């Protein structure tokens, strides 16, 4: 009886063997991989929580985006002269009728006359102040007293505004610009090259060029420097700096002649060196 039981047990244990190629070969049974219950539970929780928080985050970002859009829109107004939308801190509210008359005549636009305020760029206000202070020719439909009154009303406000916003005046266009748009030019040769380009464009006279190069420290827009380079390239009929250096000295005589009307001691070699330095900058 005991032997039979033993044999049955042995047979049950050896049922994992099979006869193959004249011998018994053990057959390994692969058990399905089972994960502990706590791991399964953790995966379920992770999937659920990730989806939930992703939806919440998406909604939050959309809501914040909408708030930001509304805030940006509210803080901007349109300049009545250039018709550009700008932040309020770059604009001046114009209420006075005298200010409106001066601006409308200087910039040749029809500004709305009435009790409602309008907005104008600080740069436009600053340009009028600069022109009046420097006796630049302005429309004379308004009396000098009206012009001077404009300066008195706005000058101190413009100074405070530029100080807060880190804006400065470009000495080429006399417009208020962000400091990141300007570069200080200490080299007389580079100032000369910039002015040669401006004279070629017809934006400046020889007298204005002399005034510009007379001071060692001048702020100039990066855009004006590029415009001068492009204009000089166009005048010489070249497309790049390599062609510029191959250009005969005789072809540059016209540019040097312009420069000598500003400074009689300026030479062609100074021009080439200054132009190369400006191009590199």
Helix content: 55-70%
Number of continuous helical runs: 11
What Rg, in angstroms, do the CA atoms define?
Answer: 39 Å
Oligomer: single chain
> Strand-and-helix sequence, N→C?
HEEHEEEHEHHEEEHHEHHHH
Basic shape: globular
* Total beta strands: 10
Q: What's the structural domain tally?
A: 2
Q: Mind describing the biggest β-sheet?
A: 2 strands, antiparallel
* Largest sheet strand order: 1-2
Tell me the β content.
5-15%
**Class inferred from helices and paired strands:** alpha+beta
Structure description:
The protein has eleven helices and ten strands. 57% of the residues lie in helices and 13% in strands. It has two domains: 76-161, no CATH class; 168-280, no CATH class. Residues 1-15, 44-54 and 56-74 have low confidence and may be disordered. It has a two-stranded antiparallel sheet with strand order 1-2. The protein is of the alpha+beta class and 281 residues long.
Fill in the keyword field for this structure:
alpha+beta; 2 domains; two-stranded antiparallel sheet; two-stranded antiparallel ribbon; disordered N terminus; Lin-15A/B-like_dom; Lin-15A/B-like domain-containing protein
Short précis:
With 281 residues, the protein is of the alpha+beta class. Helices cover 57% and strands 13% of the residues. It is globular and about 65 Å long.
């Amino acid at each position: 009886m005991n032997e039979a039981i033993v044999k049955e047990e042995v047979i049950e244990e050896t049922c994992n063997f099979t006869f193959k190629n004249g011998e018994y070969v053990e057959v390994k049974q692969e058990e399905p991989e089972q994960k502990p219950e706590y791991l399964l539970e953790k995966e379920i929780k992770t999937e659920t929580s990730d989806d939930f928080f992703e939806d919440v985050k998406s909604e939050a970002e959309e809501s914040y985006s909408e708030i930001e859009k509304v805030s940006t829109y509210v803080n901007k107004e349109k300049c009545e002269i250039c018709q550009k939308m700008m932040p309020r801190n770059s604009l001046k509210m114009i209420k006075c009728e005298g200010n409106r008359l001066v601006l409308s005549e200087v910039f040749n636009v029809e500004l709305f006359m009435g009790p409602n305020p309008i907005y104008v760029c600080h740069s436009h206000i600053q340009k009028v102040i600069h022109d009046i202070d420097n006796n630049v020719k302005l429309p004379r439909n308004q009396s000098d007293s009206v012009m001077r009154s404009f300066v008195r009303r706005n000058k101190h406000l413009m100074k405070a505004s530029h100080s807060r916003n880190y804006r400065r005046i470009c000495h080429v266009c006399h417009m208020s610009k962000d400091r990141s748009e300007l570069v200080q030019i200490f080299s007389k040769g580079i100032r000369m090259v910039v002015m040669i380009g401006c004279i070629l464009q017809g934006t400046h006279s020889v007298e204005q060029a002399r005034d510009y190069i007379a001071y060692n420290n001048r702020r100039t827009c990066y855009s004006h420097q590029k415009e001068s380079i492009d204009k000089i390239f166009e005048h010489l009929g070249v497309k790049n700096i390599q062609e510029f250096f191959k250009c005969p000295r005789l072809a540059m005589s016209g540019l040097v002649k312009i420069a000598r009307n500003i400074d009689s001691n300026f030479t062609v070699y100074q021009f080439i060196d200054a132009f190369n330095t400006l191009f590199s900058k």
